[in-house]
Write a structure and sequence with these properties.
The complex is a heterodimer of chains A (418) and B (319).
Chain A (H helix, E strand, L loop, with lengths): L5 E2 L9 E8 L1 H9 L5 H5 L3 H6 L5 H13 L9 H5 L7 E5 L6 H14 L4 E5 L4 E2 L2 E2 L2 H13 L4 E5 L14 E4 L6 H8 L11 E8 L9 H14 L5 H11 L1 E6 L2 E4 L2 H10 L2 H9 L7 H8 L3 H14 L3 H9 L9 H16 L1 H8 L4 H9 L2 H11 L3 H9 L5 H9 L2
Parallel strand pairs in A: 2-9, 2-10, 3-7, 3-8, 4-7, 8-9
Antiparallel strand pairs in A: 5-6, 10-11
Helix pairs in contact in A: 1-4, 9-10, 9-12, 12-16, 13-16, 14-20, 18-20
Chain B lengths: L2 E9 L4 E9 L5 H13 L6 H5 L4 E6 L1 H6 L9 H9 L9 E2 L3 H15 L7 E2 L1 H15 L4 E6 L5 H11 L4 E6 L3 H10 L8 E5 L5 H10 L3 E7 L6 H9 L5 E5 L9 H8 L6 E7 L3 H4 L7 E5 L1 H14 L1
Parallel strand pairs in B: 6-11, 6-12, 7-9, 7-10, 8-9, 10-11
Antiparallel strand pairs in B: 1-2, 1-3, 2-4
Helix pairs in contact in B: 6-7
The chains are: A alpha/beta (418), B alpha/beta (319).
């Protein structure tokens, strides 16, 4: 119990609500293809990365998209934001994040296209190469510059890639567009937060994921799964699946259609997230690699299977608990070897394992991972199959499970729904 | 009970802060007195009341009744504001009540002055989520964990939350380290508003006499928030040695830990100072993995934005 601070529940009410919208860009893409406004490469498999590589070659697609989003033109009602949100504002303050690796000169070009397309709107590009009315844009000045523009009363569209992801608080931003494919989950959450600065009473931050393939779009999955994992931790009686359902009941996720936004049904969302392997990918992204020693991370990242074979054997012999091992590490052991690259590689390995767990679960017809692992370890043919499919020996998977990196809960979430 | 209030409002068009007083001569609660004062401030924007209400004008109100009584100024038009004014300084150009200071800076100066005079400041309250996670961290410290990674979403209120943990721990010396310098201003200006931090002095380790200031403060029995820049300057190691090689009870808060502070050159000098007596919180909004790269993390606490909304809904349902 806290002795010097009381709970003030009024503070609970300060967080603005938000709503997530999944938008399908294929309408303007097909229209641009039909009109011959995009090049063959973009036509074959459109993506934000291709657009950001050369916006001129896909200019038709982008102008059509902007016209649909902001002006309701072009007959693509599924992108008409006023229709989807049922909210019309004279001064819209919107922010659009392009792929993180978009070059500054390209971002400026995108800004110019946007300005041409939306002449009534003030378009500001936030990147290091831009001078805004004689002021060089940088992280420190970005907020002040945008505040000035908002003050002028015109609709504002902010275009950024890397800049203004943090410490950029404009209360008037109510629309946030994620114009990139996939993307790192932490950075996506950071970007989404730009529309969550408290503003007018009753503000709703609206986040639009602009996707060429909404069925594979997993931008909102990370937030939901992470929340469910935390929520479960603090509500012990609940399974992860129940936690996911509770979380989904609180967050409004809409699929945009020509008739307006349709709230996504919880079961449908879970099913789709599982089908696109969104959940396993997100679980892979959020696994707590800090539970591993530097040596284990190093071994995992570098495919040193002998390390895990040795570890599992010694564990079986000594019966050490994870907590004891963990205590030893926190005594001051430095994680010099755990460079960011190594951590990222180790995470990739764990993600691959999670994505392919169905081989273990269905191959053994077991839903309890510990039982499945036991069946596999007794069967050489299965062991070989797992090693071939996962790229790591059975012992590595067993080790990650014993260490609490892969959890039974997650298996239940992924396979009880299937 | 009547109340003596003082206020600050900052009009961006004027670019100066106005500091004045208002006596609420009726029996009222603190909240009612604040509302009455805001109404009074609004009258200073003739024909621009909507502008005043728009949120563009920044406003702050204090109850200084105790201080006014001590100074024998507890009555209407007593000019208690002029008693405080010298502590603010920087006279403005728009009249004697104006000051050439940014809004937050004026607030900080008034808060520090009032705390010194023994005028009770407002009590900081924590949101339900802040309190829950603070208890989680304190329980972890109690269990023997020393280095906690806190991945806390935007709008969680990291500053007041981490300050609250330091107060609950009764820590003498709180070292706030960051690569991002604006963090320090935000800590100081947020915390000085509240009574629970009235006995804390905020010292920037970039000041030439920071060592003297810290020693003097601790000798007086006050607590210290010491702000340490992790930018690798020539005096950084000397500062770290001074802050950690002493007998004061200590807490280390690394803010924006995934930004600059995650690099080995920034993290290692601090990691080297961590022992059983240093309670450490590594705070970040995102990229917890990156933030933790070089720290011997014992445990993680995490809050996502939808959790704040789940709590908001639960609170709304309970009202």
């Amino acid at each position: 119990m806290l002795s010097k601070f009381k709970i003030n529940t009024k503070r609970d009410l300060l967080a603005p609500d938000f709503a997530c919208y999944q938008m399908d860009l294929m309408g303007p893409v097909n229209a641009a293809i039909k009109a011959g406004e995009v090049d063959d490469e973009f036509k074959e498999l459109p993506s934000w990365a291709k657009f950001a590589a050369n916006p001129i070659k896909a200019k038709g697609f982008f102008t059509r998209t902007l016209q649909s989003l902001f002006l309701g033109q072009g007959g693509h009602d599924e992108l008409n934001v006023d229709l989807q949100t049922e909210d019309y504002k004279a001064q819209r303050v919107s922010m659009m994040f392009m792929p993180a690796n978009t070059r500054n000169d390209v971002l400026e070009l995108i800004g110019n296209i946007a300005q041409e397309t939306l002449p009534a709107c003030e378009v500001i590009v936030l990147c290091g190469s831009v001078d805004h009315r004689g002021v060089k844009v940088n992280n420190r000045k970005a907020q002040g510059i945008v505040e000035g523009l908002v003050e002028e009363g015109k609709p504002v569209l902010i275009i950024a890639a890397q800049m203004a992801q943090r410490s950029f608080s404009i209360p008037e931003i109510t629309e946030l567009y994620l114009a990139y494919d996939r993307g790192e989950s932490g950075s996506t959450l950071q970007k989404m937060s730009r529309t969550l600065t408290p503003g007018d009473k009753g503000k709703v931050g609206r986040i639009f994921s602009l996707s060429f393939d909404p069925n594979r779009d997993d931008k909102f999955d990370a937030m939901i799964v992470e929340t469910a994992v935390n929520y479960k931790k603090r509500n012990e009686g609940k399974s992860l699946q129940e936690a996911m359902r509770d979380v989904l009941r609180t967050i409004d996720i809409f699929k945009c259609s020509t008739d307006g936004a349709i709230k996504v049904n919880i079961d449908q969302y879970l099913e789709a997230a599982l089908a696109r392997k969104g959940i396993s990918r997100v679980l892979g992204k959020i696994v707590n690699l800090n539970l591993l020693s530097a040596e284990a991370v190093h071994a995992l990242a570098n495919g040193n299977s002998d390390y895990f074979r040795g570890k599992e054997q010694s564990r079986a012999e000594s019966g050490k608990t994870r907590e004891k091992q963990q205590k030893k590490k926190s005594g001051g052991e430095k994680r010099d070897l755990s460079t960011q690259r190594e951590l990222a590689k180790a995470r990739e390995v764990v993600t691959t394992i999670l994505e392919n767990l169905d081989i273990i679960i269905y191959g053994t017809d077991q839903t309890v991972l510990v039982d499945a692992m036991e069946s596999i370890s007794k069967n050489q043919e299965m062991r070989d199959c797992v090693e071939e499919e996962f790229g790591v020996p059975v012992e590595t998977i067993g080790f990650l499970f014993q260490q609490g990196i892969i959890k039974q809960d997650w298996v239940e979430l992924m396979y009880d729904n299937a | 009970m009547a109340r003596m209030m003082v206020y600050n409002h900052f009009d961006p068009l004027v670019n100066e802060s106005k500091f004045g007083d208002h006596f609420v001569n009726k029996d009222c609660t603190y909240e009612e007195a604040v509302a009455d004062t805001l109404k009074y401030m609004r009258t200073q924007y003739p024909r621009r009341a909507r502008y005043f209400d728009s949120g563009k004008v920044l406003k702050q109100v204090w109850d200084v009744s105790e201080f006014a009584k001590v100074k024998d100024k507890f009555y209407g038009a007593s000019k208690i504001d002029d008693v405080i004014r010298p502590a603010i300084g920087k006279p403005g150009t728009q009249g004697k009540e104006y000051h050439l200071l940014p809004f937050e800076e004026l607030n900080t100066r008034v808060n520090i002055f009032l705390a010194k005079q023994g005028q009770p400041l407002i009590e900081a309250g924590l949101s339900t989520k802040q309190a829950e996670v603070a208890e989680e961290v304190l329980a972890n410290f109690e269990k023997g964990n020393r280095v906690i990674l806190a991945e806390l979403c935007a709008r969680f209120g990291k500053t007041i939350w981490s300050g609250a943990i330091a107060v609950e721990q009764n820590t003498d010396l709180v070292v706030v380290a960051s690569y991002v310098k604006t963090v320090f201003t935000s800590f100081a200006s947020d915390l000085v508003k509240f009574q629970q931090f009235a006995n804390h002095v905020h010292i920037d380790c970039g000041d030439a006499d920071y060592q003297e200031k810290i020693n003097r403060t601790l000798e007086k029995g006050q607590k210290v928030f010491a702000y340490l820049s992790l930018a690798n300057g020539s005096k950084r190691q000397e500062r770290i040695d001074f802050l950690f090689d002493n007998n004061a009870s200590k807490m280390l808060i690394v803010d924006e830990a995934d930004f600059g502070a995650h690099q080995i050159k920034q993290a290692q000098p601090l990691v080297d100072k961590i022992d059983e007596n240093v309670y450490t919180i590594i705070m970040t909004g995102t990229n917890a993995d990156r933030a933790a790269t070089h720290w011997p993390i014992d445990t993680i606490v995490s809050v996502t934005y939808p959790e704040l909304l789940i709590q908001k809904k639960a609170t709304q349902d309970a009202i």
